Amino acid sequence: MMTTSYPMSFTTLSLMGGLSTSCARSWPSSTRLLDEVNTHSSAQLEYWKQELEGSSPAELLTDRPRPKVLTGEASAVPFTIEAELYQSLQAFCKTHQMTPFVVLLAAFRATHYRLTGAEDACIGTPIANRNRPELENMIGFFVNTQCMRITVEDDTFEGLTQKVRSTATAAFANQDVPFERIVSTLLAGSRDTSRNPLVQLLLAVHSQKDMGRIQLEGMQAEPIGLSVTTRFDIEFHLFQESDRLSGGMAFSTQLFEADTITHLLAVFRETLRRGLEDPQTPIATMQLTDGLGELRTKGHLQIDRTEYPRESSVVDIFREQVAAFPDAIAVKDSSSQLTYAELDRQSDQLAAWLQQRRLPAESLVAVLSPRCCQTITAFLGILKANLAYLPFDVNVPTARTEAILSTLVGPRLVFLGPDVCPPALELSDLEMVRIGDALAHPCQDIPSDTNTPLWPSATSLAYVLFTSGSTGKPKGVMIESQAIIRLVKQSNVANVLPPAPCVAHLSSITFDISAWEIYAPLLNGGTLVCIDYPTALNSEALAFVFARERICAAMLPPALVKQYLADTPGAFRLLDVLFVAGDRFDSQDAIDAQALVKGGVYNSYGQTENSVLSTIYKILENEQFVNGVPIGHAVSNSGAYIMDPRQQLVPPGVMGELVVTGDGLARGYTDPALDKDRFIDVIIDGQEVRAYRTGDRARYRPKDCQIEFFGRMDRQIKIRGHRIELAEVEHAILGQESVRDAAVVATKQDDEELEMIAFHAKPPPDLAPLVHGAGPDCGAGATTCQSQWEG
């Protein structure tokens, strides 16, 4: 607008054209420029095709489900970088000869990395696109969006800024290709109205030095507030003023809450400050403390300690139940049942038989048996003899059984359950005895000079379970009596069960869930119902057993929950409590199960090394899940913390490794050399404690600090609740002479169960047994393919 009567002159434009989103669209009226564009366009487009091939847009975890169509509805949170931090930014830029944009983009990408763990991601930035003199005096909108693909691996903050500078320099050198053309080339034929293509997060640093009011002679200017809109998930705008940066973050209100954006900006500020203070700090271990006070205030750094019988052993507490409920049914299977008095008497008899053999305390006794009364008798008898049991599933291949038994030192004793065919094992010093034969054997007096203690303590070894190992050899996990008791007595897990619970025994005895299934009822005067394999896999038969036996509690893997919900959902109406453990719980299944179970449904998370469970989360009525079902908070007498690679606590919202502590921790691995990287000491709120690194990626949910689980940080997977190392499967396949090379991947389509696919250079006679032998009960989830590898 002209406010004076002074004459005005206008420069003749060398380029004419309509206003558009890209200067390239204005050039066709100029033959010379059109020829120039055509010359450079192909080369620049080729650059973008190579640069963005296989790339992923930077995304953040949302607060609401992503809608099918983003409408642009948005809000904004203001943000300021005050003088002190701004001066540090300017000093860094001067020393390293960088622009503030480069450093701020590096800090924004570092923030995204810490919040998501994404190593490779694209962030967008707008450019003025006035890089030609012909455009200097033209009025029009020529802004173009650039994709900055930035990887974060072991980078320091300084290293990341250098990487961003190189990326930005290359991007600006190829800025003439319109963003829309890049999209149409890379995403030809695809259209997703739920998100902006290629870029969902955008950072813009504007160079205005004076953000004051516009000065017009003879007139007053007033700012007019405009409604905020954005076609991106998030737009972060910063304006350079004389002594600070100010601006704000516009965000889609269809996706985010304002508190989440405020938290994001706080992490960004601390990331920038830490990076400028110590540029050699690795991004992955940059200590972020803003928010740790919230964890402390809400009690998430303290263990919920309860008065459980920590000085008692499993045998001690079982004896108490025998005295209180001698005639109550303790355990039953499809053909037999035992009262507490009968189970006590039979397990005493088996213990006496074992003590006659004068085995050293805590020696391992293998049990190869199905779920049945004899198996439970064997477990208790072994514990009463101050020995520890080593369970084997009857469906596990002989090769795996032999591999595990070969690691034992000294005599190898294997108890066989009813109708179990003795496996053909090529091992020395091996004795197989049927449980029934040992019970029928008359017991003599125990020699008085025996060195074997006759009674276990709370810290006595109870059992050993072998899990998948990345070296090709299974890892034996040693669990003590106290670890079991802390879970089933006076805990936030035990307290949700009714008195004298009737619990279904559905899991394999080699699966750690079986420890909860067995001891939750037997140490609380309840009844354990052993369900055989055919019944467990038949939804209608299982529902019948649930009704007949009045089962009130069960712990199931998500795959079985999904199957039962589809086939016989009525079975869940009979339960008071349902725990779901062993893998990620599908959100819709959680909602459906909660609507059926008359008591509570709990998403449960744990690992063998922490005795079944580490955390639990109660599913709320009509609850909706955006980032999967949370795994909640630590079980009683245990701790669960999110830490960075240097075992420093991270605040809410920041991705890290889940580390667990407390009374449930295993003694360690049977091979002590394996303890080093997993069982460690950490500092929690000023105190050093023993901990286990789970290798799982997780975060504290910003709004309530509940823990959310996001999968493995390595190549370990879970199939039907069993941990499988892909490297172990590869190792088994590579052990065949006819296999030159092999690779195993995990794949999942839609709601299908996770499965393994093995690729190999030459086909061995039959790979399926090898895949079966690599892990318990997982071979059915495996496929083998001959690859086309050369070399």
UniProtKB/TrEMBL annotation:
Record GO biological process: amino acid activation for nonribosomal peptide biosynthetic process; secondary metabolite biosynthetic process
Domain Condensation: 41-290
An annotated Gene Ontology molecular function: phosphopantetheine binding
Gene3D superfamilies with a match to the protein in the record: 3.30.300.30, 3.40.50.980, Chloramphenicol acetyltransferase-like domain, Luciferase, Domain 3, Nonribosomal peptide synthetase, condensation domain
One Gene Ontology cellular component annotation held by this UniProt entry: cytoplasm
PROSITE patterns: AMP_BINDING
Signal peptide bounds: none
InterPro entries: AA_adenyl_dom, AMP-bd_C_sf, AMP-binding_CS, AMP-dep_synth/lig_dom, CAT-like_dom_sf, Condensation_dom
Entry keyword annotation includes Manganese: no
Keywords annotated in UniProt: Ligase, Phosphopantetheine, Phosphoprotein
Keyword Magnesium: no
Parts forming coiled coils: none
Record domain AMP-dependent synthetase/ligase: where: 318-669
Highest rank taxon of the organism: Eukaryota
CDD domains: A_NRPS
PANTHER family listed in its UniProt record: FATTY ACID SYNTHASE, NONRIBOSOMAL PEPTIDE SYNTHETASE
Classification via NCBIfam families: AA-adenyl-dom (TIGR01733)
Descriptive protein name: AMP-dependent synthetase/ligase
